[in-house]
């Protein structure tokens, strides 16, 4: 059976939580393969609202197994908190979740280092969520990290102390004032909690599972935040694109089936970095207000702008997207004119390719559409959709050369049209 994948195609916050929750009804397992608690995936159903951070968005589906894969970085404290929240819904996290022994642990000092790095960067800061993501992946790549499976080792405490000492030196070098012991007792307590979980050899678990049953992989962040292909250095520290699925779960590319690419009908970005179609006017403000574009994790107002098809075509290509999923077009219901960027002017030349130097002056070239001026939120069938909206969708499919298979017209599970 195949491993189908859901990937965000923009700068994160595309609505992955909702879609994974909708699709999870068809998959007996959902797996996170990268990222950590920098993610904030929102789910709405039966009058309940939830934000999950490290727990996969399949957690509320009866009988589904949820896997935290090897490519993930896990903060035991946040994770324990999340488990407490789902317990309020009567869900036993220990029964539904499996954690890869190879996932890396976020230490309290990783978070302090994140803050120290950002403080030292001044104006050039990334706008990190400060969850310790960058420093944890740095330790992984430089071969100093601690993994979930290590918590069972008799010398775990010593290894922890060694890594912590390294971090204290780094924090000192950055001239950052903080208490390195802060939150350590709570963290150690959460490690004990983690020991009660089923810790797995993820690569065997996933491959054996796929011999009999399908699985859905849930991306965090978006492809434009990918460490290799995003707007570097304003990216996250993991592989958010399709390759990250294989390394993060230990599966071969031949096992991948559908690649669902999610995008919003406009763009948002939270944190620093280039954003060619960003709006600084009342239109941008209107999008933020109607779309409720405030961070699910940090509460920060998100930067907003028109849909960027140049960037989208780029990520569709990298990820090999087979099915597109369009989110939040209902937020554009009241706009007279809707714009989409179809090319850039860079150095006086028009191009439809995403440039290497994203800090360069990029002028977006727009195609304009007449707004449909109709409330789409109650629509549940393709036939009900207005002609102006259908034209807009057709234009995007022609440009991207991939069909839009799902249209989401509101946060709830039910507000979804499949084509
Ligand atoms: P979901 O999964 C949007 C952004 C941060 C910052 C940059 C690096 O909810 O879509 P990091 O904390 O990873 O070192 O921050 O990446 N970022 C996100 N933006 N959605 C996310 O996750 C994000 N996770 C990280 O704002 O600009
Ligand atoms: Mg989010």
Description:
The protein has about 425 residues and is α/β, with parallel strands linked by helices. About 30% of the residues lie in helices and about 20% in strands. The protein has helices at about 15-25, 75-85, 95, 110-120, 135-140, 155-175, 185-195, 200-210, 240-250, 280-290, 310-320, 385-400, and strands at about 5-10, 30, 40-45, 50, 65-70, 75, 95-100, 105, 200, 215-220, 255-265, 265-270, 305-310, 325, 335-345, 350, 360-370, 405-410, 415-419. The strands form 4 sheets. A 10-stranded mixed β-sheet has the order 9-7-5-2-10-1-11-14-18-19, with helices on both faces. Strand 15 and strand 16 (about 350) form a beta hairpin. Helix 2 (about 75-85) crosses helix 7, helix 4 packs across helix 5 (about 135-140) and helix 4 packs parallel to helix 6 (about 155-175). The chain is globular, with a radius of gyration of 21 Å. Bound molecules: 6-O-phosphoryl inosine monophosphate and magnesium ion. 6-O-phosphoryl inosine monophosphate binds next to helix 5.
């Amino acid at each position: 059976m195949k491993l189908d994948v859901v990937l965000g195609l923009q700068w994160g916050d595309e609505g992955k939580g909702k879609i994974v929750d909708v699709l999870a009804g068809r998959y007996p397992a959902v797996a996170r393969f990268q990222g950590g608690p920098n993610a904030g995936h929102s789910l709405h159903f039966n009058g309940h609202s939830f934000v999950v951070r490290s727990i996969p968005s399949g957690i509320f589906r009866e009988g589904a197994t949820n896997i935290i894969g090897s490519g993930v970085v896990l903060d035991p404290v946040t994770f324990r908190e999340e488990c407490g929240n789902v317990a309020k819904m009567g869900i036993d996290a220990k029964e539904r979740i499996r954690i890869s022994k190879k996932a890396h642990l976020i230490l309290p000092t990783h978070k302090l280092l994140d803050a120290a790095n950002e403080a030292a960067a001044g104006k050039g800061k990334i706008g990190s969520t400060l969850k310790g993501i960058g420093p944890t992946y740095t330790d992984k790549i430089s071969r100093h990290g601690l993994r979930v499976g290590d918590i069972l080792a008799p010398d775990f405490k010593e290894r922890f102390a060694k890594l912590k000492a390294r971090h204290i030196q780094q924090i000192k070098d950055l001239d950052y004032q903080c208490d390195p012991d802060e939150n350590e007792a709570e963290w150690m307590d959460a490690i004990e909690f983690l020991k009660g979980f089923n810790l797995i050899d993820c690569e065997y678990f996933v491959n054996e599972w796929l011999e009999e049953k399908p699985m859905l992989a849930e991306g965090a962040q978006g492809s434009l935040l990918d460490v290799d292909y995003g707007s570097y250095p304003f990216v996250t520290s993991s592989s958010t694109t399709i390759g990250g699925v294989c390394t993060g779960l230990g599966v071969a590319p031949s096992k991948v089936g559908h690649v669902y690419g999610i995008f919003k009908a406009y763009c948002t970005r939270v944190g620093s970095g280039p954003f060619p179609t960003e709006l600084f006017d009342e239109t941008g403000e209107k999008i933020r207000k109607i779309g409720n574009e405030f961070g699910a994790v940090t509460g920060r107002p998100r930067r907003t702008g028109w849909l960027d098809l140049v960037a989208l075509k780029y990520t569709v290509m990298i990820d090999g997207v087979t099915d597109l999923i369009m989110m939040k077009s209902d937020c554009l219901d009241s706009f007279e004119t809707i714009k989409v960027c179809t090319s850039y002017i860079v150095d006086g030349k028009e191009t439809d390719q995403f440039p290497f130097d994203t800090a360069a002056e990029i002028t977006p070239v727009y195609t304009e559409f007449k707004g449909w001026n109709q409330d789409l939120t109650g629509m549940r069938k393709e036939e009900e959709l207005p002609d102006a909206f259908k034209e807009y969708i057709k234009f995007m499919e022609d440009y991207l050369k991939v069909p839009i298979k799902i249209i989401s017209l509101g946060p709830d599970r039910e507000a979804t049209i499949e084509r």
